[in-house]
Write a structure and sequence with these properties.
mainly beta; Lipocalin; 2 helices; globular
Length: about 290
């Protein structure tokens, strides 16, 4: 009986992890990239399914990548003071003026098996990563076809294998965001962002630290330090196939030259890229 219960909980946590991790993926690829651009009236409720397929590095500046295929349900609620799944996961409309906003910034990343990265063989696996914190947004320009924002994001970082939660420091991410439409066709909208990332030593240690007990002749001990983590360039496109079906294409370039821990034996590449495709199918929406 105990074995059955343990197996059930492991399956539950695995499904829960996939759902939580994919929520920011959906929010980034689906809602956040098009909320301001699409000026037409939207329903208060929207329910459907979202399928994400993507390939991304195991960690920043890693040599290896991993692929994921994740189907998840989604719910969007567009209330006057609270929004769920629109421009983020949960957004309280405490301050939301035409040129100034205060929101909740979220981030997440999948776990990674150290055996999948040659340089990390014998080291502990990387757990799921969760990030949460405030975001202050200031509009820099506004036209009928586009908007440009400065987003100042400060997030607390945690890692978890769902049996424990560990503190991984803080990330500061100042971001320039440009949103427009008709980049490739008459039915598409897009969001282009550029952001340098700065993190405390705990965050860098999680990716680049090599304790003495894990050191080898090819992987010497290394004490990671905080500072510049790298810069990211992201382009997300939304193509509306019909009123209830949209396709999203996401690409991210990571630039890590000059980062604080380039001397770590775990720091392998100055440049990374990630690709993703999403399919959104709305099954129900309110009138």
């Amino acid at each position: 009986m105990q074995k059955t219960s343990t197996t059930f909980h492991l399956k539950f946590f695995s499904l829960f992890a996939m759902f939580i991790i994919t929520l920011p993926v959906y929010a980034t690829m689906a809602s956040k990239s098009t909320e301001i651009i699409m000026k037409t009236d939207k329903p208060i409720w929207e329910i459907g399914a979202f399928l994400a397929v993507f390939n991304a590095p195991l960690y920043p500046a890693a040599a290896e990548s991993q692929g994921k295929v994740l189907p998840v349900p989604f719910v969007i609620y567009r209330g006057e003071r609270l929004r769920v799944g629109e421009d983020g996961i949960i957004k309280a409309m405490a301050v939301d003026k035409p040129r100034f906003k205060i929101d909740l910034s979220l981030g997440a990343a999948f776990n990674a098996n150290s055996d999948d990265a040659k340089v990390r063989e014998g080291m502990p696996d990387l757990d799921f990563i969760f990030e949460v914190g405030p975001e202050v947004s200031i509009m820099l320009s506004n036209t009928d076809a586009s908007e440009t924002w400065l987003n100042l994001q400060f997030r607390k970082v945690f890692s978890s294998d769902f049996s424990r939660i560990d503190d991984r420091g803080y990330i500061f991410q100042p971001e320039i965001s440009y949103q427009g439409k008709q980049l490739f066709s008459d039915n598409d909208s897009f969001k282009f962002t550029f952001a340098p990332l700065f993190a405390t030593n705990k965050t860098h240690q999680y990716f680049y630290q090599v304790d003495e007990k894990y050191s080898t002749t090819e992987r010497p001990a290394y004490d990671a330090k905080g500072g510049y983590l790298g810069s990211e360039l992201v382009l997300v496109n939304r193509f509306k196939v019909r009123h209830d079906i949209s396709i999203f294409v996401s690409s991210k370039l990571g630039f890590y030259k000059g980062a604080s821990n380039v001397d770590s034996p775990l720091f392998k590449k100055d440049f990374n890229y990630a690709l993703g495709v999403g399919f959104k199918w709305t099954l129900y929406q309110s009138n």
